[in-house]
Specification:
Number of domains of chain B: 2
CATH topology of the largest domain in chain B: Chemotaxis protein chec
Order of helices and strands of chain B: EHEHEEEHEHEHEEEEHHEEEEE
Number of domains of chain A: 1
Oligomer: heterodimer
Number of strands of chain A: 8
Strand content of chain A: 35-45%
Number of helices of chain B: 7
Shape of chain B: elongated
CATH architecture of the largest domain in chain B: 3-Layer(aba) Sandwich
Radius of gyration of chain A: 15 Å
CATH superfamily of chain A: CheC-like
Distance between the termini of chain B: 26 Å
């Protein structure tokens, strides 16, 4: 797994979030994780095929997910992670991954993405890769992680 | 190609006449026309066209409201916005409301014909996938199961309802990507996964990881084989699968899938129940326009 694969995701946050009215985007920690990811509460998984293959696993807490959806809806209160809020978060990850896919294609790597699947609760996830790079983004002070588990497709 | 039925919605009789002639000249069957929301609902409801051309400016309403009204009648009717205005904001709004294309007035007959033909070809292709996918994934599941476990599971009733569900304990998710994208999800209890692994390994799995690995691999075989069968039926579908991700824990809620078609049923195996859910979406990226 190549560290350069994470830059398109940084850029995706910088490109997409301001369009949704969220301007305060900072990079948090970058860490290398093993196969098993202990969920913070909410995970959204998007499959990748093409010149690169693997999965992108977005991760946040239920509270942060609700707060981000609320910001996306110009401050409207979001009390529950209900169907509407789940759909909004899925759509956000879809936009971020699609945006990253465009950056990859600008570098000559063509990838296609699957629709997102969102899970929440108390659980662990086992990714396809032995090593996953975890990039933490701080969105208006809220932690939102991207676990990048993609490899060059031989 | 079979007869393609078109309804023209426009507030200007001049525009209707132009579009009607243009469409008829190019072999389409213009079955009706409407100039306001009420007429649109009546005509579309009665005639069920394949395509509606939709003006943006309609007195008392707009093209977007009319599009929503049409999709309330039948979400499979394809709406093409035909308007003199064309800017990012309007196009975005049209996409968001599930219009499937946008053409600027004055309309170029070739552009309109090409767009309709592409939409109809796409319609047929998605229908083709929709008709076969679940049967193929189910057969692939039975086949893989038979080869590995020497038994053929019995499937319960199929459901197309798309609802949030609570995991039995272990969920394996695989992205399916191609002309249309989707996902396959297998869900089972810890106990079922353990029994399955024990049978496949002929010993108890050494660790949770080993067990999860086997579930991932089974899922991979099912989705991979099924996708190949579908690609052989029609190579335009070009399905490929992303590697499996496995979720396990004592509380997993799986959100409603944002897909245009989903089918699920429960396979009753001698190791326990396995829930098999497959679905596809008509990707929004398939927006058709000649912009």
């Amino acid at each position: 797994m190549d560290v350069k694969y994470i830059n398109p995701f940084f850029d995706a946050f910088l490109n997409v979030m301001p369009e949704l009215g969220i301007k305060d985007i900072k990079k948090g920690n970058i860490s290398l994780r093993g196969k098993i990811i202990e969920s913070m509460g909410v995970l959204i998984i998007i499959g990748i095929v093409g010149d690169l293959k693997g999965n992108i696993i977005y991760e946040t807490t239920i509270e942060n997910a609700k707060a981000i959806v609320s910001k996306m809806m110009m401050g409207a209160p979001v009390k529950e992670l209900d169907e509407m809020a789940q759909s909004a978060i899925e759509e956000l990850t879809n936009m971020l991954t699609a945006n990253a896919a465009t950056s990859f294609s600008n570098e000559g790597l063509r990838i296609d993405i699957s629709p997102p699947t969102l899970m929440y609760g108390n659980f662990k996830a086992s990714s396809n890769a032995d090593k996953t790079i975890c990039v933490e983004m701080i969105i208006d002070g809220l932690s939102f992680r991207v676990n990048v588990a993609i490899e060059k497709y031989k | 190609m079979k007869d393609i039925k078109v309804v023209v919605v426009d507030d200007s009789p001049f525009s209707i006449a132009l579009l009607r002639d243009m469409l008829t000249d190019n072999g389409f069957d213009v079955v009706g026309e409407a100039t306001c929301l009420e007429e649109t609902v009546e005509v579309v409801g009665k005639l069920r066209p394949n395509i509606v051309t939709m003006d943006m400016t309609i007195p008392g309403t707009d093209g977007i409201e009319c599009t929503k009204a049409i999709h309330a009648i039948d979400p499979n009717i394809n709406v093409i916005i035909v308007s003199s205005m064309m800017d990012d904001e309007i196009v975005k709004k049209a996409k968001k409301n599930h219009a499937c294309g946008y053409i600027q007035k004055p309309v170029d007959p070739e552009e309109l014909t090409l767009l309709i033909n592409r939409i109809m070809a796409d319609d047929e292709l998605f229908k083709e996938l929709d008709e076969v996918y679940y049967k193929v994934y189910k057969e692939s599941f039975m086949d893989v199961f038979n080869k590995l476990m020497k038994t053929v599971p019995k499937f319960g009733e199929e459901s197309n309802s798309d609802v949030e569900l609570v995991s039995r304990g272990i969920s394996v998710v695989m992205g399916i990507i191609g002309k249309y994208s989707g996902r396959m999800l297998l869900d089972m209890s810890y106990d079922t996964a353990e029994k399955l692994s024990e049978f496949a390994l002929k010993r108890k799995p050494k660790s949770v990881e080993e067990m999860l690995n086997i579930m991932g691999e089974i899922c991979n075989m099912v989705a991979g084989n099924a996708s190949s069968v579908i690609n052989r039926k029609n190579k335009l579908l070009g399905l490929r699968v992303a590697p499996p991700s496995i979720f396990y824990g004592n509380s997993i809620n799986i959100s409603k899938a944002e897909l245009d078609t989903t089918t699920s049923s429960v396979a009753n195996t001698e190791f326990g129940e396995i829930y098999v859910n497959v679905g596809f979406q008509r990707r929004s990226g398939e927006w058709m326009s000649n912009i």
